[in-house]
Amino acid sequence: MRNQEFQKTMSISFKYVTLFVLMIILTSCKDISEPITDTFPGFYTPANFPQPSYAFASNPVTKDGFALGKKLFYDGILSRTGLIACGTCHLQNSAFTQVGHAKSHGVDDGETEYNAPPVINLAWNEAFMWEGGVLQLDNFPVNPITSHIEMDETLDNVVKKLAAHPQYPSLFKAAFGTNEITSERMIKALSQFQVMCISADSKYDKVKRSEGAQFSTDEQAGYTLFKAHCASCHSEPLFTDSKFHNNGIVIMDPKELGRQNISLNPNDAYKFKTPTLRNAIWTSPYMHDGRFETLEQVVNHYSNGIIDHPTVDTSLNNPIKRGLQFSDTQKKQLLTFLNTLSDTSFIRRRLLSEF
């Protein structure tokens, strides 16, 4: 009798386990183009942030526009091979940048020219790419899509592929009113997704907004060091000034002239855009060419690794005291503060994830 009851219990348990597994499988296979729920927050400006630079008047963020942009961001259809998506090189779990590679790999395993920058708070950016060759977010996707070493596709061909796709015409209609697919609409949808990649819920943000968090003694000491020595380029609260600086790294490739490639001004030689330090613990490797694997290496560089060069930023190239020359204690305090810029909710936000 007991054996029969046991077998019956096991049979019921097995059915529930099977049902649970099937639910997981069905959930994981769910189409990422599904409509965003009614709780879609829309674009917002965090209380401790300035007003954004992006021109929302010409491209307001909508629930359906964002959903379309999200599907496009993760779809390899934008590339010639159908295998390389924006999300291939901009991974959410590494704050929307590449992980494990100094430089990203595009179609046919081609290596990109520079390290992939993170997609973070782009609505407040005034220039894009390491050299600043793009001044508007709506123009930014054109470069990777058409680059022979990234996606190697043409905008016209992408539009044709989207028009022939079974889902995209209806998604474009929901987002823009008609099922007409154009490169302009495609790029605007991508912008709607990217401006929603807002990271503003780190410990630093909670301290600045007086939301019950406080810096520890070491974090506060690191913050004081940061404001004295780093904030001129990594200015708060975005932790970038969106400008271009030569930060005194050893020149590995003389052809990588940085900002000079755009401005044609020799005084801009080897100057690159200041990257944001938000979520820095997840955006390794560092620098435009990904030469540093750890934040410790980055801090050591600024402390005693600055080289002499005519265009090195004056804050680093004092001939009497080159570099910032932090003590070991100060290095640890600075790294402790940088950890407060980590926004775990950002890299886990379901709204931004592929699945």
Give a quick precis of the structure:
36% of the residues lie in helices and 1% in strands. It is built from 13 helices and two strands; from the N terminus they run αααααααααβαβααα. The longest helix is centred in the first third of the chain and has 27 residues, at 2-28.
Features:
355 residues; mainly alpha; Cytochrome Bc1 Complex, Chain D, domain 2; two-stranded antiparallel sheet; 36% helix; globular
Report on the structure:
The chain has 355 residues and is mainly alpha-helical. It has 2 domains: 56-199, Cytochrome c-like domain (Cytochrome Bc1 Complex, Chain D, domain 2); 203-345, Cytochrome c-like domain (Cytochrome Bc1 Complex, Chain D, domain 2, Orthogonal Bundle), CATH 1.10.760. Helices cover 36% and strands 1% of the residues. The chain is built from 13 helices and 2 strands, in the order αααααααααβαβααα. Strands 1-2 form a two-stranded antiparallel sheet. The longest helix is centred in the first third of the chain and has 27 residues, at 2-28. The radius of gyration is 23 Å and the shape is globular. Residues 1-38 have low confidence and may be disordered.
Topology of helices and strands:
Elements: H1 2-28, H2 63-73, H3 86-89, H4 142-146, H5 155-163, H6 168-176, H7 183-195, H8 203-208, H9 217-229, E1 244-245, H10 260-263, E2 272-273, H11 295-304, H12 328-339, H13 344-348
Antiparallel strand pairs: 1-2
Helix pairs in contact: 2-6, 2-7, 9-12
